[in-house]
Every structure is written in structure tokens, then in C-alpha cells.
Amino acid sequence: MRNFPHSRLALGAAFAACATLAFAQPRFESASPTAGGKTSQQANQTADKTVYQAVDYVNKNKKGAQVVVIPGEIKSNNATFLQKFTANNIADFGELELSNANFTVLERSNLGPVLREFELAYNLGDPQAARKYLGMGRMKTTKYVVKFDILKTEQVASAQQSFDGGTLGQMAGLLGAFSGSRGGAMAGAVGGTAIGSVHQGEATSVWVIGMRYKIINAETTEQLAQGYTEEKMEVGATSGGALGINSSQQGGAGLDTMVQRLIQKSVWDIDSKYK
Question: Is 98 helix (H, G, I), strand (E, B) or coil?
Fold first, then answer.
């Protein structure tokens, strides 16, 4: 009987541990056959730098106004970007980050044709018609309309360098051959083969992507504020080898990551200045 309180404490601790495990965020293991290997570690180190990171918005504890995000414009002529992104993709990122910054976001998917009619009227430059739609249904209490535009996606720089040991290998073989001894010739041939097998190269490309945001007064459809931000996207690759052993690595932040980071910078600006 004396040990009963201790047993009860131990049982309580066990239940607490189980509860903690039950509410822990799920974790998933890689099914790749190379998981845990050297190439896996290198690739994951690069990928970790592109994983989504939540932003600590300065005014996130302050409730923001009710906003609606409408699809913006993509003014880039870059074919890769246009194939990968639509204005709706960018607006989805905007809704996510504005919600994280504690704005009340009316999701476009829940507003139906009213929002599409507002977008059409606004883009056609008809503020009276746009105001009429903003006065309907759930949009009545909307304070701001926000849009995010991509203004620039261009490759601004690239560089590459390489080393090929073939020429040096041939020189080493010739020097051995002219050394006047059989041993020197053999050593020169072996050294020439080893040096000639060495090759190494790397290439880097840097892009600049620019985004503008606009805040529109939902009651008057007048533009209240706008801002612009840019980010560099660097993509690189390396390769090398010697004596038949080759290695290569490539990586960098992708377009999805860059657009989300630009949205986060824009929302940080909105959260800081317009709450």
C-alpha cells in the first residue's frame, strides 16, 4: 500500500507521455533506397534550405481587417514561369500568408461569381460596378482588396568554370617517355592516365524575380498603398571525377519557393504598415 502513490504517479506519467506522442506532428521516413547515404545527405542539406519557413509577423497578435485577395497580373515573358504559375497560384499563397499574419481572409473559392464579377469590373476600370459587387453578401464587411503582381523574372547572371586533366595527363606521359628509362616511362604512363582522368566543373545561374502588391479600399475601390520587393534565385550544379569515379550535385530554390518568399516579404510589409 505504501507504493500505491508512486505507482499512481508512474501511471500518470505514462499516460502523459502517450498523450504527448498522440498529439505529436506526424513524421514520415524516406522510402528512397539511398536514404541515409552520402548522396542522400548532400541532397537533403540542399533541400532543407528551401523548406517552408513560417514568418514571425511583427503585428500577428493584432487582429487584421477583413480582406479579399484577387488574382494579380504576371507581366513576365519568361516561358518557364508562365508554364508553371498562374495568377490564381500566387493569390493562393497570398491568402495563406495573410491568414498567418492574422488578417481575416475571405477565400475566393467561397465567394463564387460575385468575386469574379468584381474582378472583371475592377480590371475594366469601372469603379461604380466594382463597388456594387463589394456590397453583396459576405463581401459587405471587406475593408481591403489585395493583389500581388509579378513584374519581373529574368536571368541576370551566369558563370561556369571547368578543369580537364587530359592535356596535363598527355604532358606527364610524354615527360616520362623522354626520361630515358623504362621505369620513368612506366611511371609517366601511369601518372598521365591518373591526371588525365581528373575533371571538375561547376556552373551557376542567378535570376531576379520582382513582386508588387497593391492594397485597394474595398468601399471606394481607390488604391491605398503599394510596395515592391525583389529576390535572387540562384541555381547551381557541380560535377567532378577521377579514375572512373564521378560525382555531381545540383540544386537551388525553385520558382514555388521564390514566389512564396516574395509573398512573405510583401505580407510582412502589409502587416507592419497597414494594420
Answer: helix
More confident residue, 241 or 255: 255
How large is the average pLDDT for residues 78-92? Answer: 78
Alpha helical stretches, state H, the chain: 4-22, 38-48, 79-84, 87-100, 113-123, 127-134, 166-177, 182-196, 255-273
Q: What sign does the dihedral 77-79-84-86 (CA atoms) show?
A: positive
Q: How do the domains of the chain map onto residue ranges?
A: 56-273
pLDDT of residue 190: 42
Q: Can you count the helices (H) and strands (E) in the chain? A: 9, 6
Percent of the chain with pLDDT over 70: 59
All three cell numbers of 31? 522510402
Amino acid in the structure at residue 263: I
Q: What is the CATH number of domain 56-273?
A: 3.40.50.10610
CA distance 135 to 131: 6
Sheet with 66-74, edge to edge strand ranges: 104-105, 66-74, 144-164, 199-217, 223-242, 245-252
pTM: 0.66
